Amino acid sequence: MTRYRCLVLDHDDTAVMSTPCIHYPSFCNTLKRLRPEVELTLQEYVRLNFTLGFEKLCFDELHFSQEEMAWQLENWQSYVRATIPDFHPGMQDVILRQRAEGGLVCVVSHSYSKFVLRDYAHAQLPAPDCVIGWEEGSEKQKPNPWPLHEIMRRYHLSPRDILVVDDLKPGFDMARAAGCDFAAALWAYEDADIREVMKKGCSGGVALENVHDLNTLLFT
Predict the structure, then answer these.
(1) pLDDT at 8 over 90
(2) Are 27 and 123 in contact (CB under 8 A)?
């Protein structure tokens, strides 16, 4: 039996491996067009995105104009439309078991819902019970607890019924603000320093090294 009536998953890099196959190649193409003198390895991109946040990376470090930022957004969206990321090994089994044991699976993501639903369908997974995506507007997104309050309202849940799994601190801040349990998806990072930062930043949550650890947390 699942320990939580509702599993709330982040999507990008928590459930699916989107940075290596979508976000990083897209950004490399953006740099080639807008800042050809700049080259970033995958690990450099991940570290900068983690420590600065994407907007600060673009505006403060690379000094993108609003027009350049709009171009990179269109470029990124073309990559998202054209590429379907794989789920992390073992994640599909976790989702299927959560559903089989009567639990809910919800997604709270900074991606658009249509792409989340596409990725689940491509992996032959049942659609999440609900997806709260970027189209809801930034004021209703992580770290705001609104998505969790909305899930609790829809499904008549209490905070103790929910486990939030995310690879970034805004997910932890959202869970903490709503009083829900949190698990850090450290499998999203190869960088040991980032993993340590996540552990410290999410003090009070559970740090999971791999998807098998999530399976153990939910079902044993």
Answers:
(1) yes
(2) no
